[in-house]
Write a structure and sequence with these properties.
This protein is α/β, with parallel strands linked by helices and 301 residues long. Helices cover 43% and strands 13% of the residues.
Length: 301
């Protein structure tokens, strides 16, 4: 995996150069989705190890698509990977016109990322915060051009989920919002406009549901397996709340709950003691092969 400083040229003049900041589970899925739709991508992370893992994960995902006939014919894997530059340097964002930020839900991490974006990006670059809980107006205040900041909250896994929450901050320009919605439409996503409140719709509800499910297990009311069986079998959910938590990452769940608690001032968002204990012990879900369930290295339960 090379540390390329410049995104490869887009093959189609109608395609774009897009920065994706943060190469964790969400960032790598977004980079893959953009590249499969013909965009050239700069995928940035401060950790070379995470970038290496992201490259392997994207390659495996593309291989699975090719094997099941979802790819774009001969050369699909190589062609898609050639559209993605993996780098630790923010200076590679100098020639992109759209950036999707996916760093940890820790506000200090956001602050550091936005400071680097402010320095590296052109003044007209749209910065889309893919945040689970932080208000977009708050994040826009971390950059010198708040009118260029919008919120686009992808659902996990971003490669397959068709809906995306789109949020305008207090100063988001109509042009930036239209740019975000057009980009999403071009990669097969539908943007749903919601108001700029902590957690928006999905995570304000989902995080509380997951936290309550964890407390049910903590109290001994039911096992993790039985909790999820009830949600799948009774309500038709594709995944139960605890398998969903493992997919997202239990550390991200805890950070999101703490952010909601702090922003809304409501103690009901206090992370369950069991959740805190699991994150302290490094049981973070699929990415560590153990959370509420055990997984193999491919992420299968």
């Amino acid at each position: 995996m090379t540390d390329n400083a410049v995104a490869p040229a887009a093959e189609d003049p109608g395609k774009r150069r897009i920065g994706v900041v943060g190469a964790g589970v969400m960032g790598r899925d977004i980079a893959e989705t953009l590249a499969t739709h013909g965009h050239s991508v700069v995928l940035i992370d401060l950790s070379p190890e995470i970038l290496k893992a992201a490259g392997a994960s994207i390659r495996a995902s593309l291989r699975a698509k090719a094997l099941t006939g979802q790819g774009g014919g001969p050369g699909f894997i190589a062609r898609t990977l050639d559209r993605i530059a993996f780098t630790t340097g923010f200076d590679a964002l100098a020639d992109v016109d759209f950036v999707i930020e996916n760093v940890s839900e820790n506000i200090e991490a956001k602050r550091s990322a936005f400071a680097r974006l402010d320095e590296a990006c052109r003044p007209d670059t749209v910065v889309a915060a893919n945040t689970s809980t932080h208000p977009i107006t708050e994040l826009a205040g971390l950059i010198s051009r708040p009118d260029r900041v919008v919120g686009i909250h992808f659902m996990n896994p971003a490669t397959t989920k068709p809906l995306v929450e789109v949020i305008a901050g207090a100063q988001s320009s109509p042009e930036a919002m239209r740019d975000a919605l057009d980009l999403l439409a071009g990669i097969g996503k539908t943007g749903v406009l919601v108001k700029d409140t902590p957690g928006f719709v999905s995570n304000r509800v989902l995080m509380l549901t997951i936290n309550e499910a964890i407390q049910v297990v903590e109290a001994g009311t039911a096992s993790a397996d039985d909790v999820d069986r009830i949600f799948v079998g009774c309500f038709g959910h594709a995944m139960g709340p605890l398998a969903t938590a493992d997919l997202i990452g239990l550390d991200t769940i805890q950070l999101s709950l703490e952010s909601l608690r702090d922003h809304l001032g409501d103690p009901k968002f206090e992370p369950a003691a069991l959740l805190k204990g699991m994150t302290r012990s490094g049981r973070l879900g699929r990415k560590t092969a153990q959370g509420f369930f055990r997984y193999d290295f491919a992420g299968n339960a």
